[in-house]
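Annotated sample (chain length 137).
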Amino acid sequence: MPSKKSNGKKKTFTEKEIGDIRKDLVNEKQKIIEEIMSIKGETLKNFKDSSGDLSGYSFHMADMATDLYDREFLLELAEGERDILFALDEAIKRIDDGLYGNCSSCGEVIAKQRLKAMPQAENCIKCQEKAEKSVGK
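Output written by the structure step:
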């Protein structure tokens, strides 16, 4: 695991802590992949099988709407999980590049408490607040 740091900033974590964080991120990534596969399986289970059997479908309009809502809900859930998965991948890449713990916007050190609460955070609180305010406009 590289120990380089960007811009000569002080280290937020020890090498052991970084190793433990990386391991936790990889484990969380694996859990999310399993959740996405479960959601995919649940969604596919609701569709007709390849033989064209429609017995899994309801022909009542209310039941069809419920089935459609359930499928859309599961797909949205999977998309949210995908976004978290992407953030975890980015955090692992920052660890590997020796950039973990520094804000991607201003380069300052991200508070250790923030990273412990949200290890995939890439911005310090100040830059994150700015980013969220600009999105709300």
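Annotation: Residues 12-100 form one domain.
Annotation: The first helix runs from residue 15 to 45.
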